[in-house]
Amino acid sequence: MSNAPNIERDFIDQLESIILENLSNEQFGVSELAEIMNMSRSNLLRKIKKNTQLSASQFIRQVRLKKSMQMLQQTSLNISEISFQVGFGSTSYFIKCFREYYGHPPGELGKGTLVEEKASVKTHYLKRYQGQIIVAGFLTVFVLSLFIFNKKLTSTEIEIEKSIAVLPFKNESSDSSNLYFVNGLMESTLNNLQKIEDLRVISRTSVEKYRHTNKSIPEIAEELDVNYLVEGSGQRVGDQVLLNIQLIEASTDKPIWVKQYNQKVVDVFDLQNEVAKKIADAIKAKVTAAEMEQIEQKPTENLEAYDYYLQALVPYNMGTKEGLVEAISLFEKAIAEDPQFALAYAYIAFSYYYIDFLQKQKQYTELINNNADKALLYNAKSAESLIAKALYYMHIKEYRLALPHLEKALEYNPNSSSVVNMLSSLYANSIPNTAKYLTYALKGIQLDIAANDSITKSYIYLHLSNAFIQNGFTEEAKEYIGKSLNYNPDNYFAPYLKAYILYARDRDIEQTKKALIKELQKDSTRLDILQEVGKLHYYQEDYENAFLYYEKFVEARIKFGLDMYSHEDIRIALVYEKMGFDEKAAELFASYAEYCEKDESIYKSASMAVLYAHEGKFDEAIAQLKVFATKRNYQYWIILFMESDPVFKPLKNHPEFKEVIQKIEDQFWDGHDQLKESLEEKGLI
Question: Is the pTM of this model over 0.70?
Answer without folding.
Answer: no
